[in-house]
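Step 1: inspect the first sequence and its tokens.
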Amino acid sequence: MARVLLAGESWISQSTHYKGFDSFSSTTFETGADEFIAAAASQGIEVEQMYGHDVPARFPRTVEALSAYDVVILSDIGYNSFVLPNEVWIKGQCTDNPLLALVEWTRAGGGLMMAGGYLSFQGFQARANFARSPIADVLPVDMLTSDDRAGSPQGATCRVVAPDHEVAAAWTGEAPQLLGYNVVTAKPDAQVVATVDDDVLIATREVGKGRSLVWTSDIGPHWCPTEFLEWEGFAPLVGAMLSWLGAERTS
């Protein structure tokens, strides 16, 4: 069974409540990965989630540390969280760059996935900032250098364009519409498996001995609405993406 690490897809919010003359604040923690993790579990795949606030200190920084996993997913977690641990940000010290390690790990046989969101690819106001990062070389797509979000409140239509691909085999019937995604373009040696409003939704790529895959929409609300999460094809699709990434390779 593939060993899968999901980094990100969580957030901490602070709100101020005004009640007449008085006010108070509250802090909440939320994760958007529950449905995705449950879908993977239903396909026999266990996903370990590393919350966004833990990534700077805890994300594996070396190929050796990454070798504990077959698949690594980056979801709604930006470039800064990987390159600004406390050693760098507070102490001004050199340390290992986990994004460089991810590139080497992928080329050596790992399976790297990026899922969409406000802090994926380039993201909101280009703050995710992965277009010039090391992992841009191993992903199956090229990213914009500006804000790449495409919000579709009216619904964006998904369709399979490579029905013979292993990932597409899990696509059951007509998928519900999505509410947004990150706009990217496929690299020449990538395989576009599915599109959303004629843009890339799923693309895959063989990278050295490893593989990479993108899912350009959310893995949970809001871009991926309840109807999509409850679609009979969602869990098999999640399982197929992770299985393809984690498949044993001999070459």
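Step 2: inspect the second sequence and its tokens, then contrast the two.
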Amino acid sequence: SESIIEQLKKFGKDDSVKAIVLRIDSPGGGVGPSQEIYEEVKKARAKKPVLASMGALAASGGYYIACAAQRVYANPGTITGSIGVIMPFMNVKDLVEKLGVKGMTVKSGAFKDMGSPLRDMTPQERELLQGVVDNVHLQFVNAVAAGRNLNREDVLRIADGRIFTGEQARGLGLVDVLGNLEDAISDAGKLGKITGEPKVVTSPKKKISFLELLREETRTLIDEKISGNHLRLDFLAQ
């Protein structure tokens, strides 16, 4: 999310940039990064027109970001929606026992190893985690309601993780225009009061070498080892 936020800040401050078009093609991702980009889109939108153009897939966290834009474009067959939150867990207790391996944990509190794959989840832990998921889900619903100027109760009725086509989403008020990237760029030029055909400046894609990718994967593995069982909340279309 850092590179996207940096680009939004850069284009937001650049007076030569009259409008911004976000091209979104994503199933979503982590809650934190999605919310950070959402907030940066709102800041940029306060300075100049910001439009969102959906590709083949702009669901869950991808839609979370899109709904912050002034206008949302989708192809009729774009897959979007999936307004919901997921916190996946894996239980390998039976497998570990068959292998003759026994896990032991030293912890400072009853919930410190919550979500451990080495044991069953207790009812108290499930209740606590469900509360966290429900709270973040309401944050998602409120963001959509605010971004799309929709009634919160209307959003709640469709915020159960279901997906929609672009055509269906338009009927529900989640999308403004059925159109492609070129349509969004053309309209952005008009909203930015650009005379003639707008000149498009595309953010360069960051190239990651195999070595950098390996380092990133290693850092992730180390972080997971240090944190033990890690809890992760996602806005993700499954």
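Step 3: confirm your contrast with the notes below.
The chain has one domain: 2-236. Residues 123-148 form the longest helix (26 residues).
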